[in-house]
Amino acid sequence: MRFIVCVKQVPDTTEIKVDPETNTLIREGVPSILNPFDQFALEEAIKIKQVDDEIIVISMGPPQAKKALLKCLALGADKAILLTDRAFAGADTWATSYTLTQCIKKIGDFNIIFCGLQAIDGDTAQVGPEIAAQLGIPQITYVESIEKLEGKRLTAKVQTDEGYKIVEARLPLLITGITPSSFEPTNPPMMSIMKANKKSFSTWDVEELGGEKDNYGLSGSLTEVIKVYSPPARQQGVIIDEETPEAAVQKLIDLLSKDKVI
């Protein structure tokens, strides 16, 4: 079988910077990590991988995203493809999913596409489902674990608001994985990191992918980010410390009245 895992390199959440002119995240020169949801998806693919199976990781991003793909290779992926081109810049989730879909079509036959539930720098959770829609294949979202894979049927444990449910679907399909509380990301050993540099790594640009060039990047985006900003720091709260409950209630009423809340 062939598994394709879509991953993304994201800014370390403690070091996020925003371009005041474009209102987008500044990625160049910013410390980055492999998106945790994507690492979980990759590790789920590795768990069900058999001897003759193949795992290909793909990512769209700047040249520095190679670091995230090398980590994927160290974790156990067999091949990696980086999609990088100035034409891909400014893509929203739809243009991103179009780019990844073109890559998947170029790769050829596949059985399962794995995606993380969402990227921690955007939290949209849209790219995976949009890839499935563009490919015309079934999708299972909020997958906590793959319970069984037999022939052309996959059974997954899926999180819900009330708990979880068991879902079965036919291959080929796409799943998005949500990390359970018990998940502990694997740190690849040094030997695996060294071997990763010898595995197949390709870089594809817009010419390699083909497709409609107007569907890539900013020109292919159906949405526009108006502004990205960090929320203001919360002001220190007021502690009401009175001798009696009645006095505390009266103090609260006075404060709310002063601020014209009541």
UniProtKB/TrEMBL annotation:
Chain ranges of the Electron transfer flavoprotein alpha/beta-subunit N-terminal domain: 22-213
Pfam families xrefs: ETF
InterPro entries, sorted: ETF_a/b_N, ETF_b, ETF_beta_N, Rossmann-like_a/b/a_fold
Example GO molecular function: electron transfer activity
Protein name: Electron transfer flavoprotein alpha/beta-subunit N-terminal domain-containing protein
Organism (species): marine sediment metagenome
